[in-house]
Every structure is written in structure tokens, then in C-alpha cells.
Amino acid sequence: MAAKPKLYYFRGRGRMESIRWLLAAAGVEFEEEFIEQREQYEKLKKEGRLLFDQVPLVEIDGMRLTQTRAILSYLAAKYNLYGKDLKETARINMYADGTLDLMMMIALMAFKPPEEKEENIALVVKSAKNRYFPVFEKILKDHGEDFLVGNKLSWADIQLIEAILMVEELNASVLSDFPRLKAFKAKISNVPTIKKFLQPGSQRKPPPDSHYVETVRNVLQF
Description:
Elements: E1 6-9, H1 17-25, E2 31-34, H2 38-46, E3 57-60, E4 63-66, H3 68-78, H4 86-109, H5 117-143, H6 155-170, H7 179-189, H8 192-197, H9 210-220
Parallel strand pairs: 1-2
Antiparallel strand pairs: 1-3, 3-4
Helix pairs in contact: 1-3, 1-6, 4-5, 4-6, 6-7
């Protein structure tokens, strides 16, 4: 029996959360080793397991994969979530990169001064409503299908539902002007593997708190 993928990262979302989402959506069980101390991080570097001295790190299929985009691409291809041909794969890449840009805006908020919190939330919500969500609303409207690419669940769908839920944590009514995205959210949230991941007790991580931020700063020393 093949070993479960093993994920090395902090006990929080960051750049690993989309990897957790993709594995969970594919129905793949995985193990996690949380980096809590600087010594753990230094040990991974000394052992040569971090290609560019960075996490996330995923051990899978006898490989040590680093760099978030490379990991996600490999998992999408491995678990048949990457389209049926190069054209579909290109579209999935475009859509996934777009949602990743939005999610990184949210992820970086935790490391900014508290007095800028409300301003940053307003900027994220404005970007979602004016720049990102209209694109996906139009995609769903134009092809009239339930999924973003090829009328089949793909990495693009999984990352979009992740992004939608992240923005809704900041503004619960953000989808009020996007009926197709509301329907998309309902449908994708009920995919059995995703529904399971959204239940309490799963390996999905909560929004970053002060402990997570302090741990990351202490380990990476910034």
C-alpha cells in the first residue's frame, strides 16, 4: 500500500491550505507534520529537503516537492483534476492563478498592522466584487455549465470555492450580486469529499490567529 502524502508546514492555512483542499477533494488521506520551532525548520534545511529553503514541503510518490504552484499542478494532474487536454489545462491554470492572487491578499492581511485591518478587509472585498468574482460569474453564464472547465470538477473549481469561503469570512454577503456563483458554491460544497472537508474535525485550518502569526515570524525570523 502506498504511503500517504506527508505535508510539512505551520499549523495554519498559508500556502499549504490549497494543497490540503486539493488532496481532500480528491479523496486522498494525508499526514501532517507541523513546524512549531525554528529547530524543525533548520533540520529540514540541513537534510536538504527544502529545495529553496522554503515550505510548503510535500512528500509524495517518493519525491520531495516544494513550491506551491508545482505541488498543486502535480496533484491536479495525478488525481485527474487538470482537464482532458492542453487547452483545458491552460484555462484551469488561468483560473487557479487568478483565485490564488485573491487568496494571497487575504493570507497576507494577518501579517499587517492591526490598525490597517478594516482598510485591508475593504480592499479585499472590493477586489473580489469588482475584479475577480465578475470574471467567474461571466464564465459560468457564458457556458451554462456547473463547473468552470469541461463540465467536470477540476482544480479551478476547488480553488474557487476555497476563495469564495475565505472572502465570505470577511463579508458574508459578498455573493449577493452573483447568483451563478451562489449556485456554484452550493453545488461544489455538496461534492461528497468537499462536504466532508468542510465538516468540523477535518484537516481544514481556521483563519490565522495571533499564535499562528507569531509562530511563522519566530520560525522564519522576520
